[in-house]
Amino acid sequence: MELVRGLHNLRAGATGCALTIGNFDGVHRGHQALIGRTVALARRLGVPATVLSFEPTPREFFAPECAPGRISTLRGKLLDLRALGVDRLIVQRFDRGFAACEAGDFVRDILCARLGIRAIVVGDDFRFGARRAGDLNLLRVLGRDLGFTVEGIGSVEYEGLRCSSTAVRAALAAAELERAALLLGRAYRLVGRVRGGLRLGRRLGMPTANIHLTRRPALRLGVYVVELRRLCADQDVAMPAVANLGVRPTLGLTRCLLETHVLDREVDLYGATVEVRFLRFLRPEARFDTLDALAAQMQRDKAAALAFFAAESA
Q1: Is the pTM of this model over 0.85?
Q2: What whole-number distance in Å separates Cα of residue 188 and Cα of residue 176?
Q3: What is the pLDDT of residue 232?
Q4: Strands 209-212 and 257-262: what pairing?
Q5: CA gap 272, 171 in Å, rounded
Q6: What DSSP string runs through the chain?
Q7: Domains, the chain, ordered by start
Q8: pLDDT tens digit string along 28-73?
Q9: CA distance 91 to 84
């Protein structure tokens, strides 16, 4: 799958596509329906299946103080879209100039002139353009005039649950991992590249693989039983682990970090891209008065994770 960072980086002549538009945070079952139909149309028309997404999201741009947490990282989104058959992801910077683009101009100048869309698939509540003036009806009118087809997809329900990013975020905020998995169609996970850290975990007897999160996560901060997989490795091995998602209040820090300790084995993960699947919530993040108190709690967390996996294998 091709990743294009901004419409200005689209290769010359790379026009003609079946398109869907959205943030696709989490790529839940509702998103999968949109993308599945887009891919089907692309294959029928003989053009690339293309997703247009935005960074930051419009809500993060207009009201960053109250924007919702992110369900997934960009690397996680890339994995999901590739698995669904998407050929090209365009991540467009959302700024004041882009936000001011009138709905009709967006369709004519960007979707038609720049992308050459043959078909577009959107949710039936899709809004676009300055002041969110554009909607599905306008797309259909312009599609008839400009020569592309338009399909609207209604909301998707699964086992009585409406599958939306809002619903997934609500489940994650409550650390209800089973409900989140139903909405997503898979276990919840975060994907990222392992970076160097303070090495405090190693000094406390529990070395960790650290993923720095640039956006506030939707998942409740705390300690979880997880499985870690090294992606793009010769062997796809799920390693039992315990992870802390948080800002490390004991150290007085504020940047969110996912710290994962692989249980009972030494593994060098620096620089690797990994997937961390969340299996069970153990406890919320807490501040400890001393590093000794933190270290003791980390050992209790490790014991709880070991007990979980022992019970699962029994």
Answers
A1: yes
A2: 10
A3: 75
A4: antiparallel
A5: 29
A6: -EEEESGGGSPTT---EEEEES--SS--HHHHHHHHHHHHHHHHHTS-EEEEEEES-HHHHH-GGGPPPBSS-HHHHHHHHHHTT--EEEEEE--HHHHT--HHHIIIIIIITTT-EEEEEEETT--BSGGG-B-HHHHHHHHHHHT-EEEEE---EETTEE--HHHHHHHHHTT-HHHHHHHHTS--EEEEE-B----HHHHTT---EEEE-SS-BSSPSEEEEEEEEETT-SS--PEEEEEEEE--GGGT--S-EEEEEETTS----TT-EEEEEEEEEEEE----SSHHHHHHHHHHHHHHHHHHHHHHH-
A7: 2-158 (3.40.50.620), 187-313 (2.40.30.30)
A8: 999 999 999 999 999 999 999 999 999 999 999 999 988 999 999 9
A9: 17
Write out the two tokens for 170. Answer: 């609500």
pLDDT at 255: 84
Q: Angle of helix 177-184 relative to helix 165-173, nearest 10 degrees?
A: 160
Over residues 147-201, the pLDDT tens digits come to: 999 999 999 999 999 999 999 999 999 999 999 999 999 999 999 999 876 666 6
- What lies within 8 Å, CB to CB, of 19 at 6+ separation is 38, 50, 51, 52, 111, 115, 117, 119, 120, 121
Amino acid identity for residue 71 in this structure: I
292 φ/ψ sector (left φ>0, alpha ψ -120 to 50, else beta):
alpha
Q: Is the pLDDT of residue 7 over 80?
A: yes
pLDDT at 230 over 70: yes
Mean pLDDT of 282-286: 94
